[in-house]
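quick one, 465 residues, struct below
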Amino acid sequence: MVSHEAGALHGQAGHRGPEWLTPPADGNALVRALWPANVVKDRDGMLTVAGVTAAALADDFGTPAYVVDEDDFRTRARAFRDAFAGYDVFYAGKAFLCRAVAGWVIEEGLNLDVCTGGELAVAVRAGVPGHRIGFHGNNKSDAELIRALEVGVGRIIVDSFDEIARLSELASRRGARGSVLVRVTAGVEAHTHEYIATAHEDQKFGFSISEGDALEAVRRVAEAPALQLLGLHSHIGSQIFDTSGFEVAARRVLALQLRVRDEFGIELAELNLGGGFGIAYTTQDDPQPPQALADSILDIVTHECRALGLAAPHLSVEPGRAIAGPSTFTLYEVGTVKRVLLDAGTSRLYVSVDGGMSDNIRTALYGADYSCTLASRRSTAAVTLGRVVGKHCEAGDVVVNHEFVAADIGPGDLLAVPGTGAYCRSMASNYNHLPRPAVVAVKEGTARLIVRRETEEDLLSLDVG
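---
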C-alpha cells in the first residue's frame, strides 16, 4: 500500500480487483445473501421490492433514494428478539433512526439505544417509552442528561467520572433517580477496522478495567443517592462475525463484577455485552444467524458465571447494523460512463451515479466494500470490472470500489447498491450542497415516504446571509 492524496483506494497496486471478487456466472442474477428478503428481479431484469419496481420507485420518489424492505427489517428485529428471549435487545439508533423505524423497533419488542439529544428527541416524538431507551455517549451535555431524566430513560450509560458527578447532581436537584450502567473497556480489540474497534484501551469510550478506573466508577455510582447502579456495559467493536472476542470480554467484565460483589457487597443485576454484529456487504462476508450468535454468547456468559460463582446477570445485547443494514438498498440513476485504460492492456469502467460520498461516506472513510446490480433491465452484454463513483468534486468519491458490471451500462440506467441501511443515511452530508436523499419504505406492494428528500430550499433556509 502506498499513500495517495485521494485516499488509500487509489494507492492499491492491483487493478483487476481483490482476490475474493470473481466474475459472476450470470451478471443479471442477484447474490441472494446481500439483498433484503423481498427483493427479486423479474424476467426483464427489473429489480422489484415487495412487488414495487425500481422504475416505479425512481419515478415516484426520485433518485438517489434509500429503499427499505419493511418486512425484512421487522423479520430481522424479531429474529434477534426471539434468539435472545428473556433478555433485552437494543436497536442501534445511530445505524438509522426516524420515527417510523422507532415505531417498528418498539412494535417488534426491541428496545432503543440513542447517543445524542437529537436521537432522543426522535425517540420521544415517536412515542418510545422512556424505560425502553438506553442513552450512550462519551460527552453528554447537561441538557441531554436533564432530558434523559425527564423522560425516564431506563439506562444511562455513564462514560466518565465527570459525567457521574454531573448526573448525580442533576438528578438530586430534580428529585429524580438516574438508572445507570457503567461502560467499561475490557482491553479486547475486535477484528475490524481500527476506527470502529472500541474496546482496546487507547480510545475515548468507557472506564479501563485494567487501570482500576472501572471499579472506582462503580463505587462512585453506588455511593450516589440519586443514582441507581444497574450493572456494567461493554462493547468490543462493530462488523463482528464471530463470538471469540465476546468470550474474552465477558471473562474480564464478569471478573470485575466479582470484585464488585466481594469488595462492595453489591450483586450487579445487569450486563450489556454490546454486539456490533456483522452483515454481508459482499461475497467475502459470512455473518452468523441471530440464533447462533445468541447460543454462543449465552453459553459464554453461563460458563464464566459458573466458573466465578456468580449469579447470571440479566443480559442485554446491541446488534448494531445487523437489523437495519441488510434491509435497505440505495437506488441511483447512472449519469456518465467512462472506460479508463490501465496498464497491461486492461481497463476499468467508471460508472458515475447521481449521489456519492454524501449519501454513503463509508467507502471513502473506512475503505468499505459494497456490491451493486443493474436494476432497470436485463443486459445481454458481458460483465466488466467497474467502479461506481459519485458526482462530487473529490477523487475519493467512490461508492463501490470493485464490482463486475454489465459492459453496456449507460446513462439513464438504474443501479442499486445493497446493504446501505446502516450508517449511510445517518452519516449523510450536504457536501457540495447536495440535498440528502429520501428514505422510502416498501411493504406488500405499497411504497411510502418515511423521510422526505431534502431540497435546495431546505439548504438555503439555514443560510441567514
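Residues 70-325 form a domain with the TIM Barrel fold (CATH 3.20.20.10).
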